[in-house]
Specification:
There is one protein chain. By secondary structure, the protein is of the alpha/beta class. 31% of the residues lie in helices and 24% in strands. It has a 9-stranded mixed β-sheet with strand order 3-2-4-5-1-6-7-8-9. The structure holds adenosine-5'-diphosphate and magnesium ion. Magnesium ion binds next to helix 2.
Length: 236
């Protein structure tokens, strides 16, 4: 089966060729670790190839996302990239805008229905929901969350898009079991130095690099050094 590039060459190498299309992946990591940036690489790779890409922001206002991601050189105004603001401050000009944020908890299916409508209108081969954590916060009930998440996954998976969901790393939940792959961003402190590492903890249907590799965020976004080890040059 063909693979699709995640838009970060070193990470494609770690994935032994890229993501398997039409599946759901999870990107986990603490705040500021690069989840949004990594997601944007994935979407812009699609845009570059003429695909339609959909980004749904659940936490940060779309305006902030555009400004911050623009600084990495991503063309966030490209017509093939659709950004939907599903945050509490989201404007009413977007399709999901008439859903009040707190209503999510009561009827999260409105969000699902909204996404379904969008998918009916246009074809998106790459979708990002950033972060999915927000849904859990709002639903605030494990059973409700599980049910909702399953429904959500089934809705998304029935469209042949490849999906990335992001979440904060201190949680282990139903997402981990349902996702076809999990990419995790780590931070280590070694003798006063902060080291960033990226690892694949799960990738159904493929072999993958099992070592955590160093990565950096530069003014061009996320760079993964798939040939390097995190503690290279150290004696252990
Ligand atoms: N030019 C740059 N060089 C290095 N780091 C940067 C640069 N621009 C932004 N950053 C950092 O990149 C990170 C972007 O993280 P982001 O993708 O928003 O993380 P998350 O979504 O996991 O919270 C931030 O920690 C920010 O400080
Ligand atoms: Mg983010």
């Amino acid at each position: 089966m063909g693979r699709i590039s995640i838009g970060v060459p070193g990470l494609d190498k770690m994935l032994h060729g890229g993501l398997i299309p039409g599946r759901i992946y999870l990107v986990k990591g603490g705040p500021g670790m690069g989840k949004t940036t990594l997601s944007m690489h994935f979407l812009m790779e699609g845009v570059r190839k003429g695909e339609g890409a959909l980004y749904i922001t659940m936490e940060e206002p779309a305006a902030h996302i555009k400004t911050d991601m623009g600084k990495f050189g991503f063309n966030v105004e490209h017509p093939n990239l659709k950004i939907i603001d599903a945050t509490p401050t989201g404007t009413k000009t977007n399709i999901l805008g008439d859903i009040r944020y707190m209503e999510f908890g009561i009827s999260f299916d409105k969000l699902i229905a909204g996404i379904k409508d969008i998918l009916k209108e246009e074809r998106y081969t790459r979708i990002v929901i950033d972060p999915i954590t927000m849904v859990r916060v709002i639903l605030n009930n494990e059973a409700a969350y599980r049910k909702t998440f399953l429904l959500f996954v089934n809705t998304l998976i029935s469209n042949d898009a490849t999906i990335i969901l992001t979440m904060e790393s201190d949680e282990v939940g139903v997402e981990e079991y349902l996702a076809n792959g999990v990419i995790e961003l780590f931070k280590f402190v070694e003798r006063g130095k902060v080291l960033r590492g990226i690892g694949i903890s799960k990738f159904r249907g493929s072999s993958f690099d099992e070592e955590i590799r160093p990565y950096r965020i530069t003014n061009r976004g996320v760079e993964v050094y798939h040939n390097e080890s995190l503690f290279m040059g150290e004696e252990y």
